[in-house]
Amino acid sequence: MNEASGRRAPADPSAVRPPMRDALVAAAFRLFTERGYEETTVDDIVALAGVGRRSFFRYFPSKEDVVFPDHERCLADMRAFLAEPDDGAADPVPRVCDAARLVLRMYAENPDFSVQRYRLTRKVPGLRAYELSVVRRYERALAGHLRDRWADRPGGTLRAEVTAAAVVAAHNNGLRSWLRSDGGVDAEAAVDQALGYVQDTFGETPGEATAPTAAVVAGRTAQDVVVVVSRRGAPMWRVVQEIESAFGRD
Question: Whole-prediction pTM value?
Fold first, then answer.
């Protein structure tokens, strides 16, 4: 695994997708193209693939799942990658960005299939909803890792959820620009640019990880919070006077 680029081998490098599984996917997409998704049944798919219904449901719980055959493997890879030791890195944001790149790698393994699937999901609202549920599972995996890393931080849970959502949104922005171009643009460059924005926005600045939680005001550390209440419309000099009084200044 090259952590800098987010590339890694599958969780089980020895695992090879069964030929029957690939045959079912190929048969399904051929029929989806020729007849349409809604008009194609599981019976049609197994008939073209030359297998029985039991064989189909051994690999895919539903017709929707045959459209997204690699997401379970990719999700397992992502969880395994996030569970690996990170050598005490202070900032976990680059790691979750690398984890998101595993999804791009999965799409890039078979660009023609990925573009074909993208076109299909744009036409079928039910598949789009299914795809969103898959995306949400990736987001939960990233958020869980960040929550663990920021568990002792004030607002750590909120920060984890917001950052994970931003990582997924940025990754998908780059991925979809590649898919919309029929694979013509540089997918890795597009995703790197989008994730770079996330790291700049949500990553920790130097010293942030070990900075004291107490507020620092005018060179002094305050261990409690001072709240100043002022009447609406009060002149600014009066507001400043109240603030200075609260901090014990003349």
Answer: 0.72
